[in-house]
UniProtKB/TrEMBL annotation:
SUPFAM superfamilies, A to Z: Trypsin-like serine proteases
Signal sequence residues: 1-33
Name of this protein: Secreted protein
Annotated InterPro entries: Glutamyl_endopeptidase, Peptidase_S1_PA, Peptidase_S1_PA_chymotrypsin
Keywords per UniProt: Signal
Source taxonomy: Bacteria, Bacillati, Actinomycetota, Actinomycetes, Kitasatosporales
Comp. bias intervals (Basic and acidic residues): 124-135
Keyword Transcription regulation (UniProt): no
Keyword Nucleus found: no
Positions of region (Disordered): 37-72, 124-164
Annotated PANTHER family: PEPTIDASE S1 DOMAIN-CONTAINING PROTEIN (PTHR15462:SF19), SERINE PROTEASE (PTHR15462)
Length: 411
């Protein structure tokens, strides 16, 4: 099958990102340096409650891997067999079996073999938003420490081409029991592999169903998706490089928090405050790292600043629920407030924003010492799409990140 990956040209590897005017300009993301931040290098392991996906996906070069087939390495095949899953059945479409007894749910159970050519442009266009909608009732318990609901902020379209203006931001595709779904994600730096990161930050609910489910499948990240912001009609005749200028990047390792795995629900639930995840990805074709290919990546800010002291934040993503269709990148900028779902849970950030489902997992950015860093990700929002909320990223999130970097980053 035809791959949609086209190598980035040298010119595209020197892009500045999220460049704009006014307040957005303050959030401009420049092409990355070749080392992590001093804060990250000094960070210790912390008291992690994070959980990692172990023994991730293989590639399409395994035994008997022909065109359009899955080549499953022996270690992954063995683990599938341990769960009572027939490897041949899996290769022939058994991954579509979402029976509760065969839905891999534990942190150590993550598998995501590459299926080259699976995510064709038409399949991408048919994927639906992964939505986490809350109601007034869901947020009433913590109103004593929540700030007033913010005024809606109308999302604005990012300037095209995205590889010039928002190269680290992209779209995540995956398969779930409900069908093909979409989220958003961000290329982040890898402190232990400077300049050669293969890490992507997103939401936990974009990779794992939470307490009543398991790991989603066929998880792929597409940076700068639909680079020129074309309409669905225009995409019918678009060159593949316009849809995926840096190609498809399959998650071969995944980590999300124990808080999400144990407490996440269809409306976020108790897991919303821990709704973050890190992917380690590999190209569907080629061997160059994601950061080298895209030309940019962001540091993550794990200081969990109080909302009143955080300054302005910007959220970027690909909203897919009406009135949006998931084909274009949007952004919102606002001063964050606090959202408390329960006195027993960490406070979340909340900003006014009209982005809908599909923007889930998209990065929130703020300026620290003149440098733009990822500080949160989109997790939940109300049914009327007037605001978004994201988790604070503290010691547990840092431990999850460092474990991914140290254990899987060099693979």
């Amino acid at each position: 099958m035809r791959s949609i990956r086209t190598p980035a040209t040298p010119q595209r590897r020197r892009r500045t990102v999220l460049a704009a005017t006014g307040l957005v300009a303050a959030l401009a993301l420049t092409a990355t340096a070749c080392n992590g931040s001093d804060e990250e290098r000094a960070a210790d392991q912390g008291g992690a409650t994070a959980s990692q996906g172990a023994d991730g996906a293989g590639d399409s070069t395994g035994d008997n891997a022909g065109e359009g087939e899955i080549g499953i390495p022996s270690d992954i095949a063995g683990r599938l067999e341990e769960h009572g899953i027939d490897v041949d059945d899996w290769k022939n479409g058994g991954w579509k079996n979402w029976d509760k007894d065969k839905w891999l749910s534990e942190a150590k159970d993550f598998v995501n073999p590459v299926i080259e050519g699976l995510w064709k442009p038409e399949r991408m266009q048919s994927a639906k938003e992964a939505d986490k909608t809350v109601t007034t009732k869901d947020t009433s318990a913590g109103q004593g420490v929540s700030d007033p609901e913010p005024a809606p902020v109308q999302a604005t379209a990012e300037t095209t081409p995205y590889h010039d203006n928002a190269a680290p931001v992209g779209k995540i595709f995956f398969d779930s029991p409900e069908g093909s779904m979409v989220c958003s994600g961000t290329v982040i730096k890898d402190v232990n592999h400077p300049g050669k990161s293969n890490l992507v930050w997103t939401a936990g609910h974009c990779v794992h169903a939470g307490q009543n489910g398991g790991w989603y499948r066929n998880i792929v990240f597409v940076p700068a998706f639909n680079d020129l912001g074309k309409s669905d009609t225009e995409l019918n005749d678009a060159d593949p490089v316009e849809i995926a200028p840096y190609g498809n990047w399959w998650a071969d390792w995944a980590s999300t928090s124990n808080g999400w795995i144990e407490g996440g629900s269809e409306t976020g639930g108790a897991g919303a405050a821990y709704d973050y995840a890190v992917l380690h990805v590999q190209p569907e074709q080629g061997s160059t790292s994601l950061e080298e290919t895209v030309g940019a990546a962001l540091d993550v800010d794990f200081s969990a600043p109080a909302a009143a002291e955080a300054g302005s934040m910007g959220a970027w993503g690909y909203p897919a629920a009406p009135p949006y269709n998931g084909l274009k990148m949007f952004k919102c900028l606002d001063q964050p407030g606090r959202l408390s779902l329960s006195p027993a849970l960490p406070t979340m950030y909340r900003i006014g924003c009209t982005m809908t489902g599909g923007s889930s997992g998209g990065g929130w950015f703020r300026v620290v010492d003149g440098e733009t860093r990822l500080v949160s990700n989109t997790s939940i929002g109300p049914a009327d799409n007037t605001w978004l909320a994201g988790p604070q990223l503290g010691q547990d999130a840092r431990a999850l990140y460092r474990n991914m970097s140290e254990t899987y980053g060099g693979r």
